[in-house]
Every structure is written in C-alpha cells, then in structure tokens.
Design brief:
GO terms for molecular function: oxidoreductase activity. Belongs to the short-chain dehydrogenases/reductases (SDR) family. By secondary structure, the protein is of the alpha/beta class. It has one domain: Rossmann fold (3-Layer(aba) Sandwich). The chain is 42% helix and 16% strand. Helix 1 crosses helix 8 and helix 4 runs parallel beside helix 5. The longest helix is centred in the middle third of the chain and has 22 residues. The chain is globular. The structure holds NADP nicotinamide-adenine-dinucleotide phosphate. NADP nicotinamide-adenine-dinucleotide phosphate binds next to helix 1, strand 2, helix 4 and helix 6. The site of NADP nicotinamide-adenine-dinucleotide phosphate (NAP) has 31 residues, from helix 1, strand 2, helix 4 and helix 6.
Length: 257
C-alpha cells in the first residue's frame, strides 16, 4: 500500500494490461487515481480492467498509431477535461545477435519504444493539465552494454534523452517529465518477447539475484511504487531525472560478495 495521495487524479498508463504497466495501474488506483490503461489485445485488456476493478478504464490502442493515441487523449478530455499523470510504459524487445537482426525487429522496437513514446506524449499534450507529471519507462539496459540488446538499449537511451528535452519543452506549462529505469522484473514479456520458458526464467532469477544488493529481482509493485512517487506532489521538485529501480544492481558491485 502506497502512502502517496492521488485522490481525484486522472492517469493514463500505456501497455497497462500486463507486467509493469499493470503493476503501476494497481499502485496508482490504490493511491486514489482513476486509471486509463491501453493495450492492443482486446481480451487481455478486458481481463486486466476486470482484475484492476473500480478505478480502471480500458481503451484498445496501439502506441505506434497516432490516430489511436489521439482517440485516447480525446476520450479522456471528453470524460474529465484533463489528465494529471501519464506513464508511457508500452514497449518491449529482445536479445538478438547483431548479425541476425532483421529489419522487422529494428523497425518494431523503434516504432513501439521510441515513436510510440513520442506519439503518446505528443497526443496527450491536448489534455495534460498544468502541473501534470509524465513518467517514461526506460530501462537499466540503456547503459549496461548487454549482449544482443543493442537496438533495445538504444531505444531506452532515446527515452531517457526525450525526458530531458521535454523537461525544457514543457516547463512553461509546469509539466514535469522523468524516466524510471527498472531492473530485472520477470513479467509476461519474458515469455512473450524474450521467448524464455518458465524454467529459463527461474534459472535466470536464481542466478541474477546473487548480483542484486537487494537479494532479489524486482516486482511490478516495486516499479509501480516508484511511478506513484514520480506522479505525486512529493516529487514536485524532481525534473528530468532517471530514477533507477533495480535493487542496486547497476549502482553497486555485489556480484562476488
Ligand atoms: N520487465 C522488465 O524486466 C523490464 C525492465 C526494464 C524496462 N522494462 C520496460 O517496461 C515496459 C513494460 O514491459 P513488461 O516487462 O511489463 O512487458 P509485458 O508484460 O510484455 O507488457 C507490455 C505491455 O505493453 C503493451 N504493448 C506492447 N506493444 C504495444 C503497442 N504497440 N501499443 C500499445 N500497447 C502495447 C502490451 O499489451 P499488448 O501486447 O496487448 O499491446 C502489454 O500491456 C517496456 O517498456 C519494457 O521495455 C521492463
């Protein structure tokens, strides 16, 4: 349970049907917000709205399609007149040896992770109120140099850069922009995007946990709580930062302790 009060706030979480987006939606609702979630798959969207319960509203939309995102912004404007919190979370990608990268994979990761974030924020400008908080989902992968993750990591480095530029672009409207960079958080994406079996995930979690000062991998609520903090007035003086939420994995050497 979070301590930040978001009573009466209107939030939009893209890709809020599973994983980190769903966890953030849960935490935002518990803090008092009304939360719009989006996703491309209708049945997954409906199931997520039902699971989230009161306070959740689903809109089927693809972040890489401008008309979809304009419809989302227009719907929120019509219903509430404004938007207080935007978590641009939808994204994904997987490791592929550089020699085997296809144009399709490059286009898909750039289209969802970069173009999608730009379209999400650009269309939301028509409904974001003065003093609103935008949080973009980046990743610790952006600066780890992980094997095979070059394009994905570059998209997340772009997201961090966008947050800094937009902090300047939107200062006149007092709209804050920050990124959150999650560490290792097993989600549906590990199976869907990375094609890992349950056993692969269990083996990876056991191995990587030893290298995390917190002694465990993250949960979707660990990230959701950070999103609530960046969405709340408690972070009002925080702008243009990248909040790393990885149990200390990339800040502290814990590998051989
Ligand atoms: N899990 C981690 O360890 C981790 C670490 C760092 C950063 N991240 C970032 O966290 C975000 C969420 O990842 P996750 O692990 O939670 O993955 P996930 O469980 O696969 O969730 C992805 C969500 O995004 C939606 N989505 C994907 N493409 C979309 C599109 N074009 N338009 C609208 N919605 C779309 C998915 O629904 P549909 O497929 O139905 O559209 C789903 O709701 C991503 O940006 C990822 O890069 C994850």
């Amino acid at each position: 349970m979070t301590t930040h009060n978001l009573n009466g706030r209107i939030a939009l979480v893209t890709g809020g049907t599973t994983g980190l987006g769903f966890g953030a939606a849960q935490c935002l609702i518990e803090a008092g917000a009304t939360v719009y979630i989006t996703g491309r798959r209708r049945e997954v969207l409906d199931a997520a709205v039902e699971k989230l319960g009161e306070g959740a509203i689903g809109l089927q939309a693809d972040v890489s399609v401008k008309a979809d995102m304009q419809r989302v912004a227009d719907t929120i404007k019509q219903a509430h007149g404004h938007l207080d919190i935007l978590f641009a979370n939808a994204g994904g990608g997987h490791a592929t040896p550089l020699e085997q990268l296809t144009e399709e994979q490059i286009d898909s990761e750039l289209s969802i992770n970069v173009k999608g974030v730009v379209l999400t924020v650009q269309t939301a400008l028509s409904v974001l109120r003065e003093g609103a908080s935008i949080i973009l989902n980046a990743s610790i992968t952006a600066d780890m140099g992980l094997k095979g993750f070059g394009v994905y990591a570059a998209t997340k480095a772009a997201v961090r850069s966008l947050a800094r530029s937009w902090t300047t672009d939107l200062r006149e409207r007092d709209i804050r922009v920050n990124t959150v960079s999650p560490g290792v958080v097993p989600t549906e994406g590990y199976g869907k995007e990375q094609k890992m079996s349950d056993q692969d995930v269990a083996d990876y979690v056991a191995h990587v946990s030893k290298e995390i000062p917190a002694g465990r991998v993250g949960t979707t609520r660990d990230i959701g709580n950070a999103v609530v903090f960046l969405a709340s007035d408690a972070s009002n003086y925080i702008r243009g930062i990248d909040l790393i939420v990885d149990g200390g994995m990339t800040r502290v050497y814990a590998g051989k302790n």
